[in-house]
Amino acid sequence: MRPRILVVGLGFIGSLHYKNLKKIRGIELLTANSNKEFEKEINSNKIDGVVLSVPFTSNYNMAKRALIAGSNVFVEKPMSTTYKESRDLVTTTKKNKKILMVGQILRFFETFEIVKSILDSGKIGELKSITCRRYSKKIIKDWWKDSDRFLLLFEGIHTIDILKYLLESYPKEISGKVSRTLKELKGDSEFLVDISFNRKVYASIHHKITSNLSCNEILFSGEGGCIFVKDFSEVYLNEKRVFKRNFIKLMNEGSYAEMKEFIGSIKGNRQPLSSGEDVLESMKIVESIYSSSGN
């Protein structure tokens, strides 16, 4: 029997996932572009897998609804707005013997396969520090405005998760501050986070969406050299560029790899890469930063 997959939300990333699901043989595709359509499909059809690409403020309720209805779930990051809700989704997944996968797409970028291979090769010696900067001036979407929590969940979860994934380590110390520097947003529009990992690696992360300066870079510094990542699409080993790809192509390839992994986990009845339980650790880091900032 062909798995029946429901794609909910057909914005940029939802449409990309839908396009890539169409490339995968042996599945039946359905779509929903509203909560009403989602409920109709869940109630009237046996849905084997739901791909959620909706505003993250809706992720928890819709993912839990789908899991209880008997569907496996792929949910775009972040899986919810709090660690408590995320933990509940993982518990619900186990209780219903289903699969929960979170859209941490950077794990599926060739860029970070290259970074991991260099780190593991020892070419920069023992890793000592990581510096991450991401600055932009974004066009504010309406659904962003009323969330109590925003940028750390919307962007920061990507950076935090990929560092944890690359280092295969959970932090021993976390400190940070979120700031509301944009009047249009109720939630945070800037954050500064310091993380000390168990491998004795210190990371500093600064994101803001109120800057005229456009910048997206990660610097991995070791005893014998460094790795520089620019715009998630270029990798430099010391001063030599060793990898460059078009970002849109990387997004497309990453989405296709995610969808293949999700369908493969359903057909193989196995846990996927970036399972809800795995990504739960990244949500715990985010929660600790918000809590220390009184949010």
Report on the structure:
The protein has 295 residues and is α/β, with parallel strands linked by helices. The chain folds into two domains: 4-106 and 252-270, 3-Layer(aba) Sandwich (Rossmann fold); 107-246 and 283-292, Dihydrodipicolinate Reductase, domain 2, CATH 3.30.360.10. Helices cover 38% and strands 29% of the residues. It has helices spanning 12-21, 35-44, 59-68, 83-95, 110-121, 151-167, 247-268, 276-292; strands at 4-8, 28-32, 49-52, 72-76, 100-103, 127-137, 171-179, 190-197, 202-208, 210-222, 225-230, 234-237, 240-244. The strands form two sheets. The chain has an eight-stranded mixed β-sheet with strand order 7-8-9-6-10-11-12-13, with helices on one face. Strand 12 (234-237) and strand 13 (240-244) form a beta hairpin. The longest helix is centred in the C-terminal third of the chain and has 22 residues, at 247-268. The chain is globular. The termini are far apart. The mean pLDDT is 95.
